[in-house]
Amino acid sequence: xxxxxxxxxxxxxxxxxxxxxxxxxxxxxxxxxxxxxxxxxxxxxxxxxxxxxxxxxxxxxxxxxxxxxxxxxxxxxxxxxxxxxxxxxxxxxxxxxxxxxxxxxxxxxxxxxxxxxxxxxxxxxxxxxxxxxxxxxxxxxxxxxxxxxxxxxxxxxxxxxxxxxxxxxxxxxxxxxxxxxxxxxxxxxxxxxxxxxxxxxxxxxxxxxxxxxxxxxxxxxxxxxxxxxxxxxxxxxxxxxxxxxxxxxxxxxxxxxxxxxxxxxxxxxxxxxxxxxxxxxxxxxxxxxxxxxxxxxxxxxxxxxxxxxxxxxxxxxxxxxxxxxxxxxxxxxxxxxxxxxxxxxxxxxxxxxx
Length: 354
Prior knowledge:
- The protein is an alpha+beta fold.
- It folds into two domains: 11-147, no CATH class; 161-289, no CATH class.
- The protein is 27% helix and 23% strand.
- It has eight helices and 18 strands.
- The protein has helices at 39-43, 106-117, 202-209, 223-226, 275-288, 292-308, 313-334, 336-347; strands at 11-16, 21-26, 33-35, 46-47, 54-55, 79-83, 90-93, 100-102, 120-122, 139-144, 161-169, 176-182, 185-189, 196-198, 234-239, 247-252, 259-262, 269-271.
- Strands 5-6-7-8-3-2-1-10 form an eight-stranded antiparallel sheet.
- Strand 1 (11-16) and strand 2 form a beta hairpin.
- The chain is globular.
- It starts with 10 loop residues before the first strand and ends in a 7-residue tail after the last helix.
C-alpha cells in the first residue's frame, strides 16, 4: 500500500497487548494512516459504543483536490464524510470496506473531540504510534504494507452477499451476471463492470431498505421511481438480460443526472456502477432540502395513501410513519432550542443494559 499523499510505501504495524491486538498502516514520511473497518474504534481514545459513524450529508468534494481511491477496494473512490456529524471534521471513508484514511493530525483531532463530548475510559492504541519504549508485556511487529496487503470484494450494492453465478448476460459489458442477496432481496450484479439488475419493484424495495430505522429513511420517496416508465425516453443499445432480444429504454431519473435503463416488458431496471448510490444520495439531498411546511404537506399525502396508495395498507402505513419521523426531525433541526435539547438527550449517558 502506497501513501495516498506522498506516494511512499506505508508500513504495517501489528501490536499485541495482554487483552487485544490491532493492525494499522502508517506512512512514516508524512504521518498519514489507513485504518481498516473496526481499527478506528481501537485506535482512538476509548468510549462506549461504536465511533465509526459518519454521514456524507452536506459534504462537497473540493474540485481542486483529486479523488482518492480506496487502497483495499479496486476502482472504488473514497468519500468525503462528516465524522460523527461534526461539520468541522471531514474524513475520507470507503463505503464498501468501511476503512478510513486519516491525514497527519486527524487522529488527534478525533480523540480531542471524543474527550470533549464523551466519557473516555482509556487511551486506545494511538499511544503506540511513535512509541519505541514499550513495557516487556507488549509486542509490536513492523513490516512493509506490501507484505500484509489484501483486497476487498466490491459487490454491486454495499453489503450484498454473493450467492451464485448465473447464465444471464450483463447488458453493459456482456459478462455473466452473479446473484446476490442484499437486505433480503435477491438481485443480479455484474462482477466485471459492477452494474446492477433489479427485477420489477426491486428498485423501490432496495431503496426502502437504505437508512431503515433512522429518520433519513427513504421508503416514502417513491414519486420519481414510480415515474421511470412514464418519462421521456430514448431507445438504448442494451438488451434486457431476461427478455431475449428486447431493447432497454433509457430515461433520466427526475431532476437528477442519473440515467436509468428499464425494460418495458418485464419492468426490470439496469443501473451502471455507482448509480444506485448516486440515486440514494440524490433522494437524501431532496429530503435534506425540504422545509417543515413542505414536509407537512408530504406527511398529509402519505397519510391519505394509507387507504388509497398502490403498495397496500401495511406498506403505506410504514411510509406514513417514516414521513412523520422525518417531519419531527426536520422541525427539531429547524428550531435551535429543540435541537440543543435533542443533542443533550442523545449525549446523556445511557443506563446499563439488564
